[in-house]
Amino acid sequence: MTFQATASFAAELDQQDPLRLFRDRFFIPPVNGKPSIYMCGNSLGLQPKSAKTLIETELNDWAGLGVEGHVHGKNPWLYYHHFTQEALSKLLGARKKEVVAMGSLTNNLHLLLISFYRPTTKCYKVLIEHRPFPSDQYAVDSQVRMHGFTPEQAVIEMKPRSGEVNLRTDDILATIKEHADELAVVIMGGVHFYTGELLDMQAITAAAHEAGATCGFDLAHAIGNVPMQLHDWSVDFACWCSYKYLNSGPGGVAGIFVHEKHHTNDAIIRLEGWWGHDEANRFKMENKFVSMHTAESWQLSNAPVFPMAIHKAALDIVEEAGGIQAMRKKSEVLTSYFEFLLLKAKATSGADFTILTPSAIEQRGCQLSLSFASNGKAIHERLTEQGVIADWREPGVIRMAPVPLYNSFTDVYRLVSLMFNNPFEN
Ligand SMILES: Cc1ncc(COP(=O)(O)O)c(C=O)c1O
Asked: Could you tell me the pTM of the whole model?
């Protein structure tokens, strides 16, 4: 598509957008009495207007039924985690039994590493990307320590080449091969939180398996952002949070994927709790754990119904919008238009920034990360005053994520116009 840097062209793209009406399903936070230009879905997605209704349903059932809500509620609480499995499985390219909404992201990462990082004296190394989200680094470092190693001994950081910011797939594959004899697990962010780079998860998984390692991904920035085929790619495990592109609220319920090839392995080491026990016999209260033989076996506790109600409200919207394929279709054009406007503004205004995120569509999701040589902080502050909500990360990066469910082409046009003081006026 040939883009134009005009307000009327952006409005035309909005007119043609099959998802345009979904914007109205979310609360857009106002700034100075006007709807903001919200670019922070990579950090916290917006509140679906339907969330309140779904929560009220559960509050009413709790008020009216008390404990009976577990079985006789409109959405019986005992089974609440089942109500999101289908939508999650489609987002991830997984079988329903391979996914479950549960817990929180870092907790889940630990639970999965307990099962999938089983080091031996010979094979004990973990490959992780350089500068992962700090919580992932802490989780991995503490896991290797738990097994008696030091992070210096056991953690390999996959660094970009000197002078580059993004990882090259070939380099990742070569590193996996190089360490094949000692590598126990590869765990990486599917989409990098800082740069927005989307990794080739299929190729990385294949290489990890070739090296005899297990392979997992932190999908915090990937789920609801890019389509995936975790089952077909044979990924061993994955975890995510739901408060970014799944719009399920701050600290909302997270989730895990465990490939079905591991489900019936009763030798697998796992931290266990009653919600992972065979559902049909859970309330017999027997003392010997019998696995669900699905990803649900990793559940520890009964489902947190209120955050799950928000999660369900948000996932219902995704389904209604046509799922991740429809969202990605718009997202590719929306982010490409954003990139086009930024580069055009740079050419006309001489602004001193670089886009860290890869330019190739297949190597990124919706986010673009702009690195400013000098005045980034001032630009971010000015944008904030002008009603833009975007995210500043030290030392000099503004991350912005036009989200297909609630951002418009006009949003990105107005954003770039504000950022560089109307660079398209002539
Ligand atoms: C990539 C990534 N990993 C881990 C986390 C930590 O998440 P939580 O606090 O939900 O455990 C985040 C939070 O934003 C994240 O972006």
From this structure: 0.97
pLDDT digits (tens, 9 = 90+) for 115-149: 999 999 999 999 999 999 999 999 999 999 999 99
Q: CA–CA separation, 361 vs 338, rounded Å? A: 12
Same domain, 254 and 355: no
b/e per residue 405-417 (b: at least 16 CB within 10 A): bbbbbebbbbbbb
Say if residue 188 is in the same domain as residue 218.
yes
Same domain, 40 and 72: no
190: which residues sit within 8 A by CB, 6+ positions away?
A: 198, 199, 201, 217, 218, 219, 221, 222, 226, 228, 238
- For residues 42 and 49, is the Cβ–Cβ distance under 8 A? no
Residue 103 Cα to ligand 1 middle (Å) = 12
Give the pocket of ligand 1 (CB within 6 Å): 104-106, 133, 135-136, 189, 193, 218, 220-221, 241
Ligand 1 nearest-atom number relative to CA 107: 11
Cα 134 to middle of ligand 1, angstroms: 8
Residues 199 and 339 grouped into a single domain:
no
Bridge partners of 37, per DSSP, are 388
Residue 426, in any domain of the structure: no
Instruction: Residue 42: give the domain boundaries.
Output: 7-47+324-419
Separation between Cα atoms, residue 97 and residue 279, nearest integer Å: 13
How remote is the CA of residue 109 from the centroid of ligand 1, in Å?
Answer: 10
Give the N- to C-terminal CA distance of the chain in Å, as an integer. 22
Distance 412 CA to ligand 1 centre (A): 26
Q: Which atom of ligand 1 is nearest to the CA of 254?
A: 10
Ligand 1 centroid–CA 245 distance in Å is 13
Q: Which CATH number characterizes residue 212's domain? A: 3.40.640.10
User: In angstroms, what CA-CA distances link 79 with 59, 85, 279, 291?
Assistant: 16, 11, 9, 17
pLDDT of residue 351: 84
Least trusted range by pLDDT, from 149-158, 165-174, 374-383: 374-383
Q: 187 and 286: one domain? A: yes
The ligand 1 atom nearest the CA atom of 189:
1
